[in-house]
Fold:
Amino acid sequence: MTRRLGAPFYRRPVVEVARDLVGCELRHEETAGIIVETEAYHETEPACHAYVGLTRRTATLFGAPGVAYVYRSYGIHALLNAVCEPEGVGAAVLIRALEPTEGLDVMRVRRGVGAERQVGNRGPHASHSDLQLCSGPGKLTVALGIELVDNATSLLDGPIRISRRPPAWRDTVPVADRRIGITKAAELPWRFTAAGSRYVSRRPVLA
DNA sequence: GTATGGATCTTCT
DNA sequence: GAAGATCCATACA
Structure:
């Protein structure tokens, strides 16, 4: 069993944390997966919620590092972030995709993809639908059972656990690319994906 | 394969 | 009242 990442890991520059989170394990209740896609957000650029300053919504972002920032997107999806940088700096890493490793049955039920909807195996290891269980920030929170009530809970000793890379992922190479799904400052190369992973929400454009 | 629109809620103006 | 760090179904090529 790998151990959780500590506060010093999250207190660093947010882009470094985003890169280093690729290959780490995310766990909630009986479900878990390896992080294969992240994005960094910082108060100095307009795509970040903290750009507008300290409000009730963004208070978590400006708080202590190592805390979960969960908010509702487009009225439907809960998105999970890890608060970074020292307290007082508004920055966080959005967890965008996982490669599921444990509790796949529970994930399929939560996501509403029963066996009858599976299209069949497209590869030697995973079915088409399993590849898409956590291939997006709104999907993985459903699959892991993470909701708005988890906002502001600690990643250091709370219900959501993020642990350092398991041995099999020790040599994972994160690839930098443009951020996606946003209209402001999307050109920043602050999205990181695990090289070659089939579980990301979108393959990187850059080499 | 790409393109489009609807669902739905929290926050801030 | 409008905007938004999304997902899915549907339509068409």
